[in-house]
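In the previous chapter we treated chains in isolation. Here, by contrast, the input contains two separate entities that must be folded as one system, with a combined length of 560 residues.
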Amino acid sequence: MQFGTVATARASTAGPSTAWTSAAARTPEGWRALPAPDLSAYLAGGGTLGPDTALGELLPHARPIAPLPSPAKVVCCGLNYGEHIRETGRELPTHPTLFAKYADSLVGPDDDVSLAAGTDVDWEAELAVVVGAEIRGADRSTAAAAIAGFTVANDVSVRDWQYRTLQWFQGKAWDRSTPTGPVVVTPDEVDPTAGLTVSCRVNGEEVQRDSTATLVFDPADLLAYISTFTVLRPGDLVLTGTPGGVGTARDPQRFLADGDVLETEIEGIGLLRNTIRLTD
Amino acid sequence: MQFGTVATARASTAGPSTAWTSAAARTPEGWRALPAPDLSAYLAGGGTLGPDTALGELLPHARPIAPLPSPAKVVCCGLNYGEHIRETGRELPTHPTLFAKYADSLVGPDDDVSLAAGTDVDWEAELAVVVGAEIRGADRSTAAAAIAGFTVANDVSVRDWQYRTLQWFQGKAWDRSTPTGPVVVTPDEVDPTAGLTVSCRVNGEEVQRDSTATLVFDPADLLAYISTFTVLRPGDLVLTGTPGGVGTARDPQRFLADGDVLETEIEGIGLLRNTIRLTD
């Protein structure tokens, strides 16, 4: 099944319709409401995503926005696509490389990505995992059972800031830099470990394409590993790393310009289409 | 002035007294209540810390606990003490090295620090800055004005996990690893840029001592820099880095053992006294 957070219109008795958001399920007839203003609130309140989820009213003019607007934790993995690591001549890592970003970094499937002019802005198409249950010190099977679903993300990175120091965080945690969505697809519908095609396009030109089957650490591995040192709770988000083809690794290097259209797609989940805005 | 979050006892009409927490101000007569269950909630609700803060009832048997239990952002700086950097022969950094940890990492001034047996646990005494106003793209003077106060922290680090990969996060973000408190002291009482002595002791033996006057990036510098890429809000916490003397840099290396007592002190702010618990 597919879930998300949607912006819709609600007829107001007091006057014109007002903008309104709701957690929702995508059904053949359209988006149906879940009893929370967004999926973060729905999952935090104990809601689950699956065939037993009770669906409410059909929502008119619903448009998916960032599915998880307020995860307490957004943990990201780097260097996780085997084919890409092998082609660069490196050995496969024995442990995942992890860093954090914030809920403030997240935008929706067709929002602008707003960054500072004069910085080196690069793409990173990624599968993101939505946590659905609280886990601490989980083994692989407990971690797998704690996955609520999968969504698409682009870990857009400000490379000059990322490489100013040894720690990547300051190039990764910019507000409104990370598109997510359009939907959260439950594990019964997609299996990243078996392989989903991840691709990224800039102004229509494909710049990344790989299969999630080549992930060194798959979603269950990552959740189990992270839960060794910090609890994961419903609504937390784990980004699984990007395949080869990023702009900083090209010769010559290539970065995003103001007005560029960035498309990020994962087979069976959906498409993000975001315009880059670089402002002074 | 000095503020904090305290555990106290409230007489219950229904039976025996129940454990209870409150944001509070330390006055000559004792702790007086602020209208929130803790300083995180107080600051998030628009409360300010200063001479105009309205004080409530005197709280009986109050004991300071972690002052900020739920910051949305805990940003940490590494490699920030000039004397220590110079003595290692490195050049002074041009940009702060930043990484993140979580509210789940924080414990109070006399809580146990609970980590996994068999890991390399090290001390890092640090000054922490409490954000008191929302800032984005702040200059130095705006950032300075946004400081609500200062507290003591120990960025206790799991070195073997920190150095498993290039990114330190997984050695820094362990739950219940980072003592904080005992109070938040407002900027009219202490001036870290002029110099406060930071010290750390293990079982009574001094292992770190330096002055915050040698910080390469002082509190206002750090808040301004971070606010360039992500908004800081009331209650967020910024850890400013640790002086020389950590266990991993010693020859031979020295790490903390189960039962060790870690004391972290900053002149004019206070003392943390935490027992290390390493369990399977």
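Chain A is about 15% helix and 40% strand. Chain A has two domains: 2-64, 74-279. Compare these points with the single-chain example from earlier in the chapter.
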